[in-house]
Amino acid sequence: MRLTVQIKEYEMDQAILDLRLQVNVLPKQTWERMGRPTLQWSRIQLQMANQQKILLIGRLQGIIVDIKGVSALVDFEVI
Asked: CA of 57: how far to CAs of 3, 22, 67, 69, 77, in Å?
């Protein structure tokens, strides 16, 4: 599902939502465009379907996300 999403003051067109995921992932480039907000340490380890590990940069915590007028408080793993 592709939607326009607002994360804090940053609006993203064509965001891809996968509602089956157990974590929310934010690409490093998007985090940089957001002005590099402070990240927290994350103990989560992510793996691809082929078992390749993904290195996390950190966790972006307590971010208000608005999707078509519905707001939620979300944490993101920045990769």
From this structure: 25, 18, 25, 29, 8
User: Which of 54, 72, 77 lies closest to 7, judged by CA?
Assistant: 72
pLDDT per position as a tens digit, 39-64:
999 888 888 888 889 889 999 888 88
What residue spans define the domains of the chain? 2-78
CB 39 within 8 Å of CB 57: yes
Task: Tell me the C-alpha to C-alpha distance, in Å, between residue 66 and each of 12, 42, 44.
Answer: 11, 24, 25
What's the predicted TM-score (pTM) here? 0.72
